[in-house]
Amino acid sequence: MSKPKHIRTLADNEAQAVARNIRVSPRKLNLVAATIRNQPASAAIAALTFSRRRIAQQVKAALESAVANAENNHQLDVDQLVVKTAEVGKSIVMKRFHARGRGRSARVEKFFSHLKIVVAERSADEGAETGGKTEEPSARRRRAASKSATEQKAA
After folding, report:
1. Is 114 in contact with 18 (CB distance < 8 Å)?
2. Which pTM was predicted?
3. Are 81 and 36 spatial neighbours (Cβ–Cβ below 8 Å)?
4. Residue 113: enclosing H or E segment and its boundaries?
5. Structural domains in the chain?
6. Nearest CA to 14 among 109, 117, 108?
7. With the CA atoms of 30, 78, 10 and 35 taken in that order, what torsion angle do they form, in degrees rounded to the nearest 10?
8. Quaternary structure per UniProt (predicted)?
9. Looking at the DSSP assignment, which residues form a beta bridge with residue 14?
10. pLDDT tens track for 68-84
11. How sure is the predictor about 146, in pLDDT bands with cuts at 50, 70 and 90?
């Protein structure tokens, strides 16, 4: 007997990697994760390679793991991968103390974080004209209205 098969929560064109108990606070990790969200996977790896933040190398390892999962487990095209989400969550907190003057102590909290990266394969026609970014209909209307207004002024 074995466990029942786990139902896949991601779409067919997505893959993920999870890094748990990373020794950095969630606020600091979220700053690095924000730099790679909605980026092509190759650009995100390049940005993390040259980032000066200490935690960037562990985020890069998690991203490379997600790309490898997409390629090997789900047969997705590596060149078409985009970082769909990079979620940061809280983990354990180690509580320590720091000796202070007059026999007192101060509490020191050492935070840990979780990181979940989901990469998705974008189709060739989807990212061709907008560079992979989707545009809301209201923004399209505003752009079209301003374009027609400038054409009327030029005429």
Report:
1. yes
2. 0.78
3. no
4. strand 105-121
5. 14-125 (3.90.470.10)
6. 117
7. 10
8. Part of the 50S ribosomal subunit.
9. 120
10. 999 999 999 999 999 99
11. low
